[in-house]
Structures are given as C-alpha cells and as structure tokens.
Write a structure and sequence with these properties.
Radius of gyration: 19 Å
CATH architecture: Orthogonal Bundle
Helix content: 55-70%
Number of strands: 0
Strand content: under 5%
Order of helices and strands: HHHHHH
Number of helices: 6
CATH topology: Tetracycline Repressor, domain 2
Number of domains: 1
Structural class: mainly alpha
Length: 185
Amino acid sequence: MSAVGVHVPAAPSRTGGAHAELLLATYAAGVEDLLGRVERACAAAGSPTKRIQAGVAALLERLASRPELARRVLIDAPAAGRSVGRARAEAHRRFGELVIGLDEEFSPPRETVAAAVRAIENVLAANLLGGGAASLTKLAPVVTQVVTSLGTGERSAAPPNRPRPPGRRGPRGSGMSAGRRAHPG
C-alpha cells in the first residue's frame, strides 16, 4: 500500500512477467505522485467547489508537465489489461474520494464515480494522443464539469469560468442578447 492508498497487487501478467511488473511499479509510483498532489491541493481548498477545481487543476497540470507520466498513466496502463487493472481501479476510487469528497453529505454511488473517472481518463488519453501533454490543461472546464456533476448531483450546470458565446448578455434562456431587449406585454 502506498502513502496515498494505492495498493500494488501481485497479479499474473498476460504481457510477460518482468515487463508487466515494471509497468505496474512505474504506474503505481506515477499514480502516487499524482494522487499526492491532488490530495494536497484538495486539502488546501475551502469549499467543495474549490476542492474540485484545485484537485482537477493539480491533476492536469502535473500530467501536462510530465508527458512520460501522462503516457504511462493514460495510455500504457489501460493497455496492459488485468496486470494493472486492479491498481487502476484503486487509483480511480481514490481520485473520486479526494475531489468529490465521498464522505460528505451527498455521495453518489461508487459505480457512478468509477464510470465518470474512467470517462475522464478516456477523454484525457484521446487528447494526449491528439494534442500532446500540454493540451491537457485546456480540458479543466470539461473535467471540472464532470466531477462537479457528481459532487452536487447537477447534470446541466455550466463549468466554472466558461465563456459565453459572442452576443450573449442576458441569462441563458432569457431571450435577451446583444441588441435585443425584452418588451413588456
């Protein structure tokens, strides 16, 4: 068990003994680094919203600054199958606990959290392959929205700091936009 709670199981490998063990060890070390940063960022944040934003930012900034870590965690480990599967599931669980705060009043089902974290992992992996590690920080609004929807139960709230499309001034759905005013009657 690592310092942040990622258990490194001894599992038979389908990719070859020494290679799988090395991948598992490097994955566990990388995840420990990531979750440690997320944990510190979340602990320093005040409100649940700030905790989510801080945890997501810590994750994405670290992945962007260490492309080899991003590749190991987002591409190599998922491709390894069962040899890393249990460690990934544990890392996903811990990330959900840290940023969502599953011990608090509202607690979504663990299966929902696990599915959301896997979806986040898939989005990050696709963007890593398509735009490189530096592109990952641009996904903060998307990842924050997914995590926020789990933590608050909201499904349609806009992510924080999301710019409005040009010409939109009034509240969404109000019928007010640039150049138009609501008329009484």
